[in-house]
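Cont'd.
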Amino acid sequence: MGEFTLLVNIGLPLTVLVIAYLTGSYLERRHFADIRKREARMQRFPTTTFETLPDDWEVADCELMAESVVVSLDYFKRVIAGLRAIIGGRITTYEPLLDRARREAVLRVTEKAKAEGFDAVINLRLETSRLANSDSGQGIGGVEILAFGTALLRTQR
Amino acid sequence: MQLDIATDIILSNTETVPGKKITEFYGVVTGNTVRAKHVGRDIMAGLKNIVGGELKGYTELLQDSRREATERMIEQATAMGANAVVNVRFATSSITQGASELFAYGTAVRVI
């Protein structure tokens, strides 16, 4: 009986950890592949962080676009990040998460602008905020990445 | 966000409306909303939290809230007689456990 309890107490979290790691990494790889494909497709769509337009542009219409992504780390990576926080240094598990969320948010803005017939997005801005969570760091938390900019339609001539 | 709000007000996050000229300034307009997470969504997000990645329920919730904040800002601008809001900014802050405030602000102007 004692052995059984031990097995449940240690084995169960360990199994969840392994499943979380495998599924999490698989989903991350798939997401990155998808992002790269879409980025290649959007490469020729003008997107800038400037406020001003090229001098020869005449604008017929503009619209504010704002898209966001909420992401969270998988269980395994959270455990690793927790350990890392003890010794300090780079938390490499968080870096790809924020990177892919940001690229996804930017893609949502540019893809939407393109789909609605706009010619460019200017003054693109990115913001990051942490979603409210319990103070202890337990429970469900996430990071929201917001991308917004002004989509432009050029005058047809 | 579906910023597809049915309005005649022009929104832009640049300092002027591209292709138009500002003729009058009305001042700063703001709009906010405080939203709490929803239990059903929380359970789904809790499951999703094990494997990581995007929490779609939360993305939707925040986009919805941001639209509401923007609509309130537009209402204010309309009441002032403006036809555009320029230099729109968004802010998010965690107010208390499980709740976020979404805030939109900008400058109401008249453009021609």
